[in-house]
Amino acid sequence: MEMCDQEEISRLANLLKAVGHPLRVQIVSIIAHEQLASITTIQSYLPDIDQFVLYSNLRFLHERTILKKLRKGRETYYSLTDTSINDGLNLFFHSKLVKTSAEADY
């Protein structure tokens, strides 16, 4: 495993802190899946989440450069700023789906 420099480690730590809430993990996962998601689309995945709470978390992720915002007319769309975020999510979720042979015995 190659060691990262201090700047990369700091960037990763900030990313993990920013996404370190279950709702923000859900939001980032939705946007990663959709690639470009409107607020309406995000709300359809999270119908029980208060609109103010959703907007606050989208703003939080945007301010920390996890998400980028695109306006088309009256609609706002979000996408991930970095494909490595999506790669990390895919790696995490894939590792949860694939059990090793030792784990399968239990």
TrEMBL record:
Coiled coil: none annotated. Transmembrane segments: none annotated. The keyword Repressor does not apply. Residues 4-100 form the HTH arsR-type domain. It comes from the Bacteria. InterPro entries: HTH_ArsR_DNA-bd_dom, WH-like_DNA-bd_sf, WH_DNA-bd_sf. Keywords: DNA-binding. GO terms for molecular function: DNA binding; DNA-binding transcription factor activity. This is DNA-binding transcriptional regulator, ArsR family.
